[in-house]
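seq as requested:
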Amino acid sequence: MIELKWNQPLIETPIADLSRPARSMKEKMQAKKRKPQGRKSKKEKQPAKYTNWHLPMLFNQIELARVSTGGPRWSTCAIVHELQKRDYETFKGLCHTTLDEWIDRSGGKPKWSERMLERVKQGNTPGHDNKGQQGILVR
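struct tokens:
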């Protein structure tokens, strides 16, 4: 049986690493293909720095917090405070200015921007089919 102490996180892996599973898959594929030759790596693997908030699991929580805070103006500060009140460890890196970029306020009522909804549909998939940085000679 696992003993949990007060305020001890259940997950040892940071949320930024969990929201980007392609990083670990890439490392496993490279380790499988790599031949034991060449210069050995001296640097340790760094944890992911940025969280993918468009992950459906995280975005559903953001949407629920938006609905629970209510209001016609979609207060981004209230949404972030509600999220951090529910689960601080997960949402401590989310800022209200990030949410401001995702909201389209051009019409009468605020709504999620089309670009944001498209990224939520994509979830964890990278931006293009090559699964990495495209070269300058690729059309």
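Residues 56-69 form the longest helix (14 residues).
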